[in-house]
Amino acid sequence: MGGVLISLPVIAALCNNTQNQTNNNEKKNPEKLNQDKNKSNEIAVLKVWNENFKDKLDSAQSYEIILNKLIKLLNGNKDLKISLANQNDLKKRFSKDIEVKLTQKLALKVNDNDLLLEAGKVAYGQQATKYKDPNTGEIKETLEKDLSKLKQFENVKEITQIGFYDDEWNNYLTKHGVKYNYIQMVKLPKSVNKVPSLLPEEITALIEVFSGNTNAKIEGIESWNTKNIMNTKGLFNNAQLFDGNISKWDVSNVTNMHDMFNGAKSFNQDISKWQTKSLKYLYRTFSRAEKFNQDISNWDVSNVARFSRVLYGAKSFNQDLSKWDINITRLEKFQGDKTGYDDWNKRTLIEKEKSKWPLNLQNVNASIRNK
């Protein structure tokens, strides 16, 4: 046997030399080491994405929701810092694409490196409404989008799962030539008095959800996280008995409160702390809300574009709104009822309080009228 025998001390020395050489190489080429690490991170993200997201997404999920789920699944990897490549895309969503014709991608920053993730197939975004049958107590579900006008739901009192759907740019704005895409909560039966306390984060619009509701309280809504809501048009329209506590709602992203409490004759809850910086449409918001008389003087209305009949018929309202910063292009009747508020309106907006209201009358297209 002609093998070469090497003593253990020699082997140990050789191993140490090899390790030292490796360490020296890494010190000499940190760029290579960083590239390898980035590649490893990219592979980790792609693996989780392909296993949990690709071909499994739907059109109701915003990029923000998807990103948060991805980060949660990668939580064990402390070396990863993930964000959207463009932070302005947080509220964007993938379009329905069942046949994968659009080649949609999510653009990320992974430790400051760009990474594109293919969405693959994107399903239609919707969730069924689950409710307790008033006759049998059985939990049933439906994909109907408006339960408020269907006879089969007219006595339903409890919703056990909130339904929603992608309106696919088809909503009340369409007839006005405006295109906007919402994830709309299903309109509920007027008899409903109990809903889940968790509002699905996909939902961006609560348009007419409780319109005509016949209850004074609706259990569950007081705890809703409404930070993603952008439109509350007609939410409690003609809910004549409603006086539920919604003081803790986050309305900071709501742009439209058109008819929100119109005809809600009993509503008089404290909503003074609502942050309304995004609000653009205050149209008949408290119209005919006969008992409403809460302090809303600290509401930020500086971005309101349409200001009409806000308190029309709100007979009890007598709060001081002289701090409101009105910078609008369309000012119609602010109050408009026959209880003397037309005079108050003119006096406040034009005469005695003009110095307190930062109102540029040259921008007012529609004058304040008495009718």
Quick gist of this model?
With 371 residues, the protein is an alpha/beta fold. It contains 4 helices and 14 strands.
Description:
The structure is a single chain. The protein is 17% helix and 12% strand. By secondary structure, it is an alpha/beta fold. It has a domain at 31-121. A hairpin with a 2-residue loop joins β3 and β4 (113-118). The longest helix is centred in the first third of the chain and has 23 residues, at 30-52. The chain starts with 7 loop residues before the first helix and ends in a 22-residue tail after the last helix. Residues 10-15 and 335-371 have low confidence and may be disordered. It holds the Pfam family DUF285. InterPro entries: DUF285, Liste_lipo_26. It comes from Mycoplasmopsis agalactiae (strain NCTC 10123 / CIP 59.7 / PG2) (Mycoplasma agalactiae). This is Lipoprotein.
